[in-house]
Amino acid sequence: MEQNDLSGARIPTATYRLQFNAGFRFRDAERVVPYLHALGISDLYAAPLFKARSGCMHGYDIVDHNRLNPELGDRDDFDSLCGTLGRHGMGQVLDFVPNHMCVEGGENERWLDLLENGPSSVNADFFDVDWLPVKKELSDKVLIPVLGDQYGTVLDNGELVLSFEEGAFFIGYYEHRFPIIPKTYSPVLTHRLQELEQLLPPDHEAYRELLSIVTAITHLPFYTDRDPERVRERYREKEVIKRRLWALCCDCWPIKTHIDENVRIFNGEKGSPRSFDLLDGLLRQQVYRLAHWRTATDEINYRRFFDINALGAIRMENPRVFEEAHRLVLRLVREGKVTGLRIDHADGLYDPTDYFRRLQRACFLETRLAGLGDTDEQEKGDQGPDSRAETILQRYDEMLEVSPQAKPFYIVGEKILMKNERLPEDWPVHGTTGYEFANAVTGLMVDTRHGREFDAIYARFIQERPNFAEIAYLKKKQVMRFSMGGEINTLGHYLNTLSESNRHTRDFTLGSLIRALVEVIAHFPVYRTYTATRKVADRDRQYIEYAVAKARRRNPAMSASISTFIEDVLLLRFYDSTSGEEQEQWLDFVMKFQQLTGPVMAKGLEDTAFYVYNRLVALNEVGGMPERFGMTLEAFHGQNIERARSTPLAMLATSTHDTKRSEDVRARISVLSEDPAAWHDTLMGWSRMNRGHKVTVQGVKVPDRNEEYLLYQTIAGAWPAEWFTTEGAHDDFVRRIREYLLKAMREAKVNTSWINPNPVHEEAALHFVDTILRDVPANGFLADLRRTLPPLVRCGLLNSLSQTLLKAASPGIPDFYQGTELWDFSLVDPDNRRPVDFQKRTAMLEGLRTAEAERGTLSLARELLDTMVDGRVKLYLVWKVLCFRREHRALFEQGKYLSLEVQGERSDNVCAFERYRDGETVIAVAPRFYTRLGVPSGGLPLGAEVWKDTRLLIPFEGAGRAYRNILTGERVVTALREGQTTLPFSAVLANFPVALLEAAEEE
How much of the chain exceeds pLDDT 70, in percent? Predict the structure, then answer.
């Protein structure tokens, strides 16, 4: 059932994320659609579908925004998928990547064009390249840090290979491919010309044609010539030269042989360094400078996605780039095949607010043009396409004048919000992709009372007292030094240029400016600010002043005048002498600064500090704050109330392709917080058991104490719900733990890293994993896992049910990551991209529907609890709640939110709230802290024996009000107790561990 909001956007009721790749294609997704519809999903939430680098498993390495990925199928396959979605009344929310493209592998035609034509390329303004970089030798060139060793070594090894294909020359380096500038073909064509003359006389037609081609090459304009007419001439004539050259080779065998032999000579002979001089001379004339990958740290002159050399940033602020990059996606919007957009890494954009405004405007135009139809002449009148578009856009502008917050197309932005940070109010989006909810619901399952005890346990085990804020600060500085030094140097030189324009600041040295800049960024409390005009928002002003003040306090020897200058620039506090042109430069600096703070935060915090500070790793999630030990009920309700007010249609996530651990892993690890003493004893016992399996490397036991602490939590969290029941399952689990630990150690950058791997330490740590998880009878650790994990696993499963219900009933649009409707104990990618068994899930859902029809809801619910480990109980919960939500979507999308008070002995063990609208009411009840309920081993937290006198206060109702439990079919009735209307939990949770209560009609 489709429903639009007031401005016309099609709003999902629930989304389901699918990861597309060569192993899961359009046709595979089409087969899943009936299952998703039956499950209660309204919209397919698709990973990027446009052409990506060959073999890409996630879709983010885009090489062409205007072609579907052929590895996923052809256009007919895609259209068939969309047709099936349409027949089921479902939409498609597409993940779109506006910030970067893959520039390695030789598949990006725009990048290849830039490499062939340099700063005068028609795509030069597509990519964010600094053609006048700090390193003068790179002026009008692009550094390509792709080589596995020093350039000279790679060249002398014969790894750079010249080739001739269809009239053009290329350099190959393994899977990489780089074009040779046609202007530089002559050295290859004219080498050994005298030998060719012995085969072909000077008056031979083919020989004269070759010389004519060489002459034409000399007349080609240089790639630095940016005169439009000269650029057109070069584009035209270079292609003519290639065609002539290839035709000549096809017609004249001696010419082709001559060129092939020259190519062989240019490629040199390994062991003879001087034989590579010709190729070296040719490479020096190119637009690009091939270099060792480590040079990127200091000298890269194109903006990247984070520190990934393969992903070059594009200048989406350029109107032409916006138009070109969105041509296909907007056509799909017009065709109704894309009904919503998820925008990846919006913080990487030069001006995110402007981007979202342009995107909403473009989507409005396309949907309205589609509404006109191709044959509706009465509506069109005599208007041509341009005037129709102009009329529609005029309507859009008029709509914004009346309703500035109108959002006519469903768009969510990937945005990580830090503590107390809110989504920018001027973004015309429906909300975020839901990281903040994932952290909130995990935090709710953590017992906040035990933070200090966990501090002590962690400190005792690793034998130091870590401070998360200090770790984050140091790791951000580490990232700026070793991964993003080039970006820091470029920004520092820009700041130095600004300082030179004023006599009061010109004495600031480059080094002092860069050091101060690093300190400010390291203390930045949010991912970025959003200044785009000469007016700085109050929220941004506070973040900047905080960062500068913290930098000053930490560095008392730092010149106060330098930090003041940086603060002045970031706050655009212009001097009286600052000219209009200089003010524009200040603003440009600020906007480039804003593009850098986000990647530094992401790499320093999420991808480094989160692997170093391991007190309770359920809290180490994207957008999370590990130093805060959980979230109170009041804070959780407050966040829900705020979302209901400001972004009621934002996505709600619990697992995503980016999460460090799946929702079910976090739910289980959270249980540890309930009983610190038990965790302490278990931890110390495991450590004693396994002490003898550690290997000493350079005088240090491996793994170190912090790695060991992380490993035990990971094993406990990812352990399957059932003991390994299939052949090879145990070995597969060990493999996954090995891969995870290796990634975690490298991300932490303490004993090893991606840049400088320490193979001896890594092998010793992986040997430890193999040894402690070896499936042999004498392994006491495995035996202890069998003894200690079942209660943890059971409580974790119950936590998962609670957080699933909370996601489905809270304000926002619940999103389900592929496969998580059953138990899923995945770790960080690529572990969370393993294939999903949809046949199994389809059969299970069909079995649930049949069983409910035959045996009734209550009987089925009880049965599912007896076999909880198989995951059907979670699938059942998702199915029942989503179908109910789809039938009552206005209640969930527009309904008010009211937190409900719980009284009695177990009052702290329940989160409950009410959603109500126009006479409709639904109550969600989600327990937590199951170890504190005193349930016997193997028992369930049900009935009066567990819940005793615990009761739910129902405001604005009297006694005798009936509610129907959607999950069991039972009716529960309010009663008066001490003058208050209540529902006893002994009845609400009599037969199922969570409840969704619908106010029943009066009889």
Answer: 98
